[in-house]
Write a structure and sequence with these properties.
The longest helix has 36 residues. α5 crosses α11. Helix content is 76%, strand content 0%. 17% of the residues are buried.
Length: 253
């Protein structure tokens, strides 16, 4: 129990240090960009024509941008500790509801993309694992390598230009209906399916070449009677572990 309590204290201390370090770096990055921050906020609020000298000074005074950065950081940190996340300088909306809304949309997008990727990767990966060295296995391996090597923002830009702008099959932006989430989910699912397909194929191939699987074949089992209990169930062990780590990779994509 003493070691567990020491570990928890060390973990919490590290978490506080990392949070303070990251928040400080983010604050410095926001506070010291080139140009006048009050003028940039005024442009975002009122437009380029409405960002007059008086509007800029009003923003500077109302948002406290005329105070020293250290004073602003101290006030922001003390408010954050008390549970006050502040508000947007542009729209005036509270930050915490904005974070909750963004988290909900991210969770929905990640869940839908995960389902799409598994629907694509499972049948293809199982087929490639059962038929290693075939034309489909080789083609999917090459295609998976190409898809993984391309960054998601490049794949996203190309698919937006093709499917949303040129063919007009999907909306370009927005989050007002389920149709708006289809294209982003497909873009994320392509990258996830490319990796998942090879993991599933490798696991199925390894099980199909194992001794217990060959022994079941010699006993006279074949087809679904052979593959489902002796092949797929054993292959699901590493696949389940990999799928369990997939939500973390959704954030990366």
């Amino acid at each position: 129990m003493v070691r567990i309590a020491s570990f928890i204290r060390t973990y919490l201390l590290r978490m506080v240090i990392v949070a303070l370090g990251v928040s400080t770096l983010c604050f410095l990055a926001v506070e010291f960009p080139p140009g006048d921050r009050a003028f940039d906020v005024a442009i975002a609020r009122y437009g380029l024509d409405g960002a007059t000298v008086s509007a800029t000074e009003y923003v500077r005074d109302s948002e406290g941008l005329d105070r020293h950065p250290f004073v602003r950081y101290q006030a922001w940190l003390s408010s954050l500790i008390r549970g006050k996340w502040g508000h947007s300088m542009i729209g005036g909306e509270e930050i915490f509801p904005m974070l909750i809304r963004s988290f909900q949309r991210t969770a929905i997008l990640g869940g839908v993309s995960l389902i799409f990727s598994l629907l694509l990767a499972f049948p293809l990966g199982i087929y490639c694992g059962c038929h290693p060295g075939g034309i489909i296995d080789i083609s999917s391996s090459i295609l998976s390598s190409l898809l993984v090597s391309f960054p998601s923002f490049i794949k996203g830009a190309l698919l937006i230009l093709l499917l949303a702008v040129k063919l007009q099959l999907f909306p370009v932006a927005g989050f007002t209906s389920g149709w708006h989430i289809a294209l982003p989910a497909i873009i994320l699912a392509i990258g996830l399916a490319a990796e998942s397909c090879r993991v599933i194929a490798s696991s199925v191939k390894q099980v199909c070449q194992s001794e217990h699987y060959n022994f079941a074949q010699h006993k006279g089992l074949f087809g679904h009677q052979l593959f489902l209990p002796h092949g797929l169930l054993n292959a699901l062990v590493p696949i389940t572990t990999y799928v369990g780590l997939t939500p973390r990779r959704c954030c990366r994509y």
